[in-house]
């Protein structure tokens, strides 16, 4: 099952797990449940995945109790020092995972300054552990933060390190996931032609394994790139696919692109509705990054509608968010647009 998941064959992984049986107290049960959860996540079965992850945690809790008892017995037999060394390693691993989780949560909320030292801590701990899998994951998450701050050179360097580690581990899903992220960073710095190649390549892979979350993300990025290149029909098609998939975190970006497409095509009322819906869902998601871009695009629309006071309000909200996230390029661009409005 693990090998099938590494190449994205979620259905085959589940089929193999269905033939596997275990006793409730066996430690192997937790790993089987974790793999089943990963497979259901790829297939978009979110609630089933969460249920299996919860069962895995419960199983690990029981196993941890048994391990604690065994360590105590071993300690009584004078192997305390070797067990303490292993305990130190497990503590490092736990600290690494906590730092990585906290950093990712901070990044998703747009608290980039808070996330940066947490990622550095996680990466340093993973390197200290000498664990390729953990190190690859920390590099991968680190690239996402750098990419969102438009630090593209640093993001690419970290991405190639992550991809090399994932390739070494035989994890094709994460190799292509990192490729998809590279396309997203090019999009963020408005290099739209460079977005298309890696984006379409990654999309073909994830369509082949039916990984809906990745498909929706790639469709969003490609839709925006095609929109900016003037290929509005392809942009509308891809954004429409995202709306049909109904992944909450992907919806604001799809509404952003549809708003831009409708604005370019002159259907301004429809564009206004798209921006308003995108902003509403981005606020629910606590996604300040997309809120900022949606407010600025809405401001552009308000300018063309002749509603300059409303445009100023949108730009100011966008600017406040970009300042909070410390994204200097976007701060400068939003200030430039504000400066074009009459006092």
List keywords for this structure.
single chain; 343 residues; mainly alpha; Serine Threonine Protein Phosphatase 5, Tetratricopeptide repeat; 17 helices; globular
By secondary-structure content and strand pairing, the structural class works out as mainly alpha
**Helix and strand string, N-terminal first?**
HHHHHHHHHHHHHHHHH
What is the general shape?
globular
CATH topology of the domain at 1-78: Serine Threonine Protein Phosphatase 5, Tetratricopeptide repeat
What amount of the residues lies in strands? Answer: under 5%
- Roughly how many Å is the radius of gyration? 23 Å
The whole-number mean of residue pLDDT values reads 81
The CATH architecture of the domain at 1-78 can be given as Alpha Horseshoe
Euclidean distance between termini CA atoms: 64 Å
Q: Estimate the helix proportion, in percent.
A: over 70%
DSSP summary, beta strand count: 0
Major sheet summary line: none
Low-confidence stretches: 1-7, 19-28, 74-80
Text of the CATH class of the domain at 1-78 = Mainly Alpha
Helix count? 17
């Amino acid at each position: 099952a693990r090998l099938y998941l590494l190449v994205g064959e979620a259905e085959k992984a589940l089929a193999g797990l269905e033939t596997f049986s275990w006793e409730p107290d066996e430690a192997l049960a937790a790993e089987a449940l974790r793999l089943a959860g990963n497979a259901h996540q790829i297939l978009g079965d979110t609630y089933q995945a969460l249920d299996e992850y919860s069962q895995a945690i419960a199983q690990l809790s029981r196993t941890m109790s048994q391990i604690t008892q065994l360590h105590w017995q071993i300690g009584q037999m004078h192997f305390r020092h070797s067990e303490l060394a292993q305990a130190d390693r497990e503590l490092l691993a736990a600290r690494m995972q906590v730092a990585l989780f906290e950093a990712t949560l901070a990044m998703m909320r747009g608290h980039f300054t808070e996330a940066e030292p947490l990622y550095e801590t996680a990466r340093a701990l993973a390197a200290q552990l000498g664990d390729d899998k953990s190190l690859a994951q920390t590099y991968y998450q680190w690239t996402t933060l750098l990419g969102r701050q438009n630090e593209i050179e640093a993001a690419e360097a970290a991405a190639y390190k992550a991809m090399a580690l994932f390739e070494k581990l035989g994890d094709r899903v994460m190799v292509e996931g990192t490729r998809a992220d590279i396309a997203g960073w090019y999009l963020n710095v408005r290099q739209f032609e460079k977005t298309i190649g890696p984006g379409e390549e990654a999309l073909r892979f994830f369509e082949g394994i039916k990984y809906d979350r990745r498909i929706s993300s790639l469709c969003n990025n490609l839709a925006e790139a095609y929109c900016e290149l003037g290929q509005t029909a392809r942009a509308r098609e891809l954004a429409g696919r995202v709306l049909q998939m109904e992944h909450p975190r992907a919806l604001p970006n799809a509404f952003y692109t549809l708003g831009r497409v409708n604005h370019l095509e002159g259907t301004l009322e429809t564009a206004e509705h798209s921006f308003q819906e995108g902003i509403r869902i981005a606020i629910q998601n606590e996604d300040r990054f997309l809120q900022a871009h949606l407010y600025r695009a809405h401001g552009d629309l308000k300018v063309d509608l002749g509603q300059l006071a409303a445009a100023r309000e949108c730009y100011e909200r966008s600017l406040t968010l970009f300042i909070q996230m410390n994204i200097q390029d976007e701060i400068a661009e939003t200030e430039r647009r504000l400066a074009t409005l009459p006092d």
